[in-house]
Amino acid sequence: MKTKSLLITLSLALASLTMGGCMGSSSSANATGGELTGVRGSAYSEPTPYGMVAVRKGSLRVGIEDNDSLWGTEFPVRDISVDGFWMDEQEVSNAKYRQFVNWVRDSIIRERLADPAYGGDESYKIEEDKEGNPVTPHLNWSKAIPWKKANEDEQRAIESVYVIHPIDGTKMLDASQLNYRYEIYDYAAAALRKYRLNPEERDLNTDHAVDMGDVMISKDTAWIDDDGKIVRQTITRPLSGPWDFLNTYIVNIYPDTTCWVNDFQNADNERYMKLYFSNPAYDDYPVVGVSWEQANAFCAWRTDFLMKGMGGYAKQIQRYRLPTEIEWEFAARGKEGNPFPWKNLEVKSESGCYYANFKPDRGNYTKDGSLITSKCGIYSPNSNGLYDMAGNVAEWTSTVYTEAGVESMSDMNPELKYNAAKEDPYRLKKKSVRGGSWKDPESMIRSAWRSYEYQNQPRCYIGFRCVRTMVNDRSGSQKMKGGAKKPAASARRK
Question: Are 243 and 335 part of one and the same domain?
Answer without folding.
Answer: no
